[in-house]
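Example 3.2
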Amino acid sequence: MRLITFVVAIIAASAPAGAQGWREYEYPNEGFTVAFPAEPKVETTSYRASGGRLVEARVYSVVQEGGEFKVTVADLSHTEMSEGNVMAYAVLMLSRGGEVKFDIPHSTRRIIGRQTSIEGVDGSQTYASVFVHNRRLYQIEGTVPAGGSTAGAIRFQQSFDFTDGWRPPDARNELRAR
């Protein structure tokens, strides 16, 4: 009985320490927030969109022993690609060399996208979402190595939120008696 109490105490004491590094970061110019486990690196790069066209993109990322966490925001304002094709191509590129475990519709603040889970040939696990909003592709990826805990990847992918002014309807107004 004492051993069980000791193990539970160790787990309880170590859980907050692992969670302390996670912090929400806001990027108002890009219109999103997301929680990273450490200060993200930001770089400007190119993103290869469907049809092979290169577009300007910004990548926010953290790479650490427990995984890789990355948000790519690609500027699609000078393209004529449909949202569906952009998202389908993004999922296809994410899943190269891996096996898609699920690929389902997903929404954040009523913005419809795709959510996918991919098992890499090396045993890694990626949890990703892709959205097209305001002529930008948002690609959110949390990847953990083989045998690693998927909790961080899922937490990262689910922490993404749009902040560009959209607000849910006020429930009090919808529930008034008529």
